[in-house]
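Example for tutorial group B:
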């Protein structure tokens, strides 16, 4: 089989817009400190887990309808609405002083997630389809994701500086408004062709609305009849749910380490925690940025994309179990290394999952198909997050992580993906 080479350089203006979007999106200054902020507000790990569950259930209720709407009526409009909802969430977190204010902030955040998740990936894949470069989706998406992770690295240092300067975690939500306003302006500059051919070619009258929505739903139903797609969705959703449910527990681990290190003794505990968390997350996200940019090269070496996905699933679970055990034994340094490995693996794996699904989906249903994956992930997280919070309160953070990771290991045989026998995946050169 002759491998088709792309006919043009896909590092065009839109490539850099995609990278700028990812960079600005990940300037979430609150990410390295969210659990510590909520703990400072007096919440238990169980209460924090319930907040995460509320966010995920809210996301779940809206995920597929908003994905279908994005495919049917315009992905740019969906993204603009989503980022507006994020801004509302940041304001509520900044002014919030009660549990119910945090609940409202989480629901607003869920609105942002539902209109964003899957939609921007679909726009990237649509751009590749238009350019005739579908065979390079792992490489291309990996490069754009690397910019996102670099944004996270920079955000960690800026957030640490803000906390050190103000002595409070609250300022990080106010600061997060600035990059999200800039992203709104950037998204408004995207070309209309990325909305999808059925949107670009359709009129704006209400007579088209029902037809577009029904057609998008029919394509989604056809998509979910493919067993390869189902396995890919389950594998991606389960691993993402495990990663997202556990990753923020690195914060109390680093906090515990900061309080015992014989450095910066002139600063109080919160300031020392801010500095150490900023440095740790900076290096974590630098590593994940490098990992994302090389996801395509790693996949091409192993040839089988399904094999890469399956190996990373098992390795990630074992790595998280090791991190939980190290935390339980108070080996905080080893636990931090295990979490670093988990972050790197997630950012190698994510472009592969997107590429695996993109090869098997109708491009017109890309946003709704990827939204199904996010909906499955949110359902799993809605259960996993409060269970992990309850276990963390009951037996400690380390033992809780170990038990949850072991439970996922038990069901991992049902998450194995496979390549189609009739399809040999081409190996594209790196960008």
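The residue assignment follows.
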């Amino acid at each position: 089989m002759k491998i088709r080479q792309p006919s043009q350089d896909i590092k065009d203006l839109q490539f850099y817009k995609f990278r700028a979007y990812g960079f600005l999106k990940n300037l979430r200054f609150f990410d390295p400190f969210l659990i510590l902020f909520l703990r400072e507000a007096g919440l238990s790990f169980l209460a924090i887990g319930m907040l995460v569950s509320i966010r995920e259930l809210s996301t779940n209720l809206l995920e597929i309808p908003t994905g279908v709407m994005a495919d049917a009526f315009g992905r740019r409009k969906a993204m603009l609405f989503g980022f507006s909802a994020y801004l509302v969430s940041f304001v509520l977190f900044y002014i919030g002083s009660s549990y119910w204010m945090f609940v409202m902030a989480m629901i607003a955040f869920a609105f942002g997630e539902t209109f964003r998740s899957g939609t921007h990936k679909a726009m990237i894949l649509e751009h590749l389809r238009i350019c005739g470069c579908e065979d390079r989706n792992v490489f291309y998406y990996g490069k754009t994701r690397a910019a996102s992770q670099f944004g996270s690295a920079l955000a960690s240092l800026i957030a640490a500086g803000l906390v050190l300067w103000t002595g409070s975690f609250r300022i990080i939500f106010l600061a997060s408004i600035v990059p999200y306003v800039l992203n709104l302006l950037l998204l408004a500059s995207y070309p209309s062709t990325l909305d999808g051919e059925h949107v670009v070619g359709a009129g704006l009258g209400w007579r088209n609305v029902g037809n577009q929505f029904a057609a998008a739903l029919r394509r989604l139903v056809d998509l979910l009849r493919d067993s390869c797609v189902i396995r890919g969705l389950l594998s991606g959703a389960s691993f993402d749910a495990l990663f997202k449910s556990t990753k923020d527990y690195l914060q109390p681990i680093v906090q515990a380490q900061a309080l015992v290190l014989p450095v910066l003794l002139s600063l109080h505990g919160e300031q020392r925690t801010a500095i150490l968390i900023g440095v740790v997350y900076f290096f974590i996200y630098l590593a994940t940025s490098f990992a994302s940019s090389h996801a395509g090269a790693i996949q091409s070496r192993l040839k089988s994309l399904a094999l890469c996905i399956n190996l990373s699933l098992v390795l990630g679970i074992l790595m998280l179990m090791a991190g939980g055990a190290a935390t339980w034994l108070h080996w905080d340094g080893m636990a931090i290394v295990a979490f670093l490995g988990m972050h790197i693996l997630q950012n190698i794996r994510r472009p592969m999952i997107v590429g695996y699904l993109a090869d098997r989906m109708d491009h017109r249903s890309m946003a709704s198909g990827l939204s199904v994956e996010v909906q499955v992930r949110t359902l799993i997280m809605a259960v996993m997050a409060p269970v992990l919070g309850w276990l963390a309160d009951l037996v400690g953070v380390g033992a809780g992580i170990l038990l949850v990771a072991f439970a996922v290991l038990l069901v991992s045989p049902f998450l194995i993906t496979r390549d189609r026998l009739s399809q040999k995946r081409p190996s594209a050169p790196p960008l």
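The longest helix spans residues 137-166. Compare this with the pattern of hydrophobic and polar residues in the output above.
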